[in-house]
Amino acid sequence: MLSDLPIELLAMSDVLPEALHLVEEGASFEENAVSKARAVCQATRMHALADDSGLEVEALAGRPGVRSARFAHERATDAENNAALLRELEDVEEGARGARFRCVLALADPWDEARVRVVEGACEGSIARAPRGSAGFGYDPLFVVSGQGGRAMAELGEAEKNEISHRGRAVRALRPMLVELINARLDETERIAG
Question: pTM of the entire structure?
Fold first, then answer.
């Protein structure tokens, strides 16, 4: 989604000889994303982009939320998390199964450690009574996307997902910040060279 920008995106493993242990102990997606971005930025002395995302279900007061990957238990598989969610919503009627996927992206700056840019994206929908589709992971087979003809996220193609997903929306919100950062570096380079 960022391939048209003149930047090179690297994984942590491309830069660090040993993997960092990034802990997600925050009470919100933003706390977790900011914590991870700062840790990677400090370790690499490079700009660092991190995300935290998950599913919020209205009937469950926003759960699973930051515990989306660990909803059933600490080492839960996608299937176990989906089964736990369906059990929790078993007696919830169709009109009360509203949910949203949320993604928070945090961009940490090695030249200003206090400055972390944060953006967010959300995708509204509801929880189906049974999984469907095979093009996805996590809760995608249960998440029926609003405005998509009753299709689950796992029934959408990659281009469709990038257009409407929580992550796609967050990345689009981040783009102006990245362009600003690129332009600032280019201006600085021209000033030094000129």
Answer: 0.90
